[in-house]
Design goal:
This is 3-isopropylmalate dehydrogenase. Pfam families: Iso_dh. Belongs to the isocitrate and isopropylmalate dehydrogenases family. LeuB type 1 subfamily. It is found in: Cytoplasm. It catalyses: (2R,3S)-3-isopropylmalate + NAD(+) = 4-methyl-2-oxopentanoate + CO2 + NADH. The protein has 12 helices and 14 strands. The protein is globular and about 65 Å long. The protein is α/β, with parallel strands linked by helices and about 350 residues long. The longest helix has 18 residues. The strands form 3 sheets. The chain has a 10-stranded mixed β-sheet, with helices on both faces. Helix 1 crosses helix 10, helix 10 runs antiparallel to helix 11 and helix 11 crosses helix 12. About 40% of the residues lie in helices and about 20% in strands. The chain has 2 domains: about 200 residues, Isopropylmalate Dehydrogenase (3-Layer(aba) Sandwich), CATH 3.40.718; about 130 residues, Isopropylmalate Dehydrogenase, CATH 3.40.718.10. The structure holds nicotinamide-adenine-dinucleotide. Nicotinamide-adenine-dinucleotide (NAD) binds next to helix 4.
Length: about 350
Amino acid sequence: MSKSVLLLPGDGIGPEIVAEAEKVLRKVNEQFGLELTFDSALVGGSAIDATGVPLPEETLSSARAADAILLGAVGGPKWDDLEMARRPEKGLLGLRSNLELFANLRPAILYPQLASASSLKPEVVSGLDIVIVRELTGGIYFGQPRGIRELENGERQGYNTYVYSESEIRRIGRVAFETAQQRNKKLCSVDKHNVLEVTVLWREIMDELSKDYPDVELSHMYVDNAAMQLVRAPKQFDVIVTGNMFGDILSDEAAMLTGSIGMLPSASMNAAKQGMYEPCHGSAPDIAGQGIANPLATILSAAMMLRYSLDAEEAAKAIEAAVSKVLDQGLRTADIMSEGNTRVSTAEMGEAVLAAL
Ligand code: NAD
């Protein structure tokens, strides 16, 4: 059965890096007989320029209809002075909320060839391959009531509410267990069980769910310890699952273990496994249009898309192997360049991945 992919290049380096990922997707589409169809639409600043809004109705309906979405990045100085509601980022937030993309998957993979890019010792991070599953649409970032109020004594008080319902915990838990099943079958749930009732319930539900996934080894860890362990011995982890705020912090920490933002993919999925896939980096306006951006994070996002939304594990693995091969060949874009390697452009990197496939 044919499946549809919506390409949303966006702004800045977005169109340059999505073009390379599209070539790679079209190639594996042929090689593996995937029957993917492709469409593209405007989002972010480019949508504002063309239609006046960051998420045109047409884009939203194409996104709803697609099996998966590949996004470049949005934003740039041109649109920085617009009022909040009309900023390019609203296009992304609109897609996340309209499609109910509650599960954010962020792998932190450090190809051994790039171990010197990390600020940690190569032996601590070389070969690192973990995934953080972060709940994206609930928790303290969305809980009500929230605000800043004035107390009777005239002092101001800021307040937020940390809430998770059982169903919210269960659905992110299932994504995490299933992700672990597709990998090394180890899941670490991160909470603050000793202080926060919300995470007492979180832990209870994770334990309950683990009965449905007997092949996955579940462990629990306090978030403060997890932050330490991630820099002490990150390779002890396979999949980590946690709430929105802890996940926000830990996934950035894990990303930085790898030292190269141009290499990191991400996925946001809903209950139907429909997903939006994008590099972790932004639109890099400082290098846009120069043909020097690293397209690998977007190409690796395409691999995640094949794995998690399009049921095409073999094609995903082939892309990941091809990326590893071009790194072995010593090909590097400027952001990951080091002595003794060959510097290539965005398009040359894309071509090299195609040739390695
Ligand atoms: P950024 O990630 O765009 O850039 C940070 C630095 O990393 C820059 O020096 C940039 O040149 C470099 N960089 C990023 N991606 C690269 C790549 N693929 N290859 C080589 N170098 C790369 O972050 P920023 O500068 O803080 O933000 C720029 C714009 O992007 C802003 O408008 C911001 O709002 C937007 N942004 C968008 C997203 C998104 O679309 N998901 C995420 C973050 C930032």
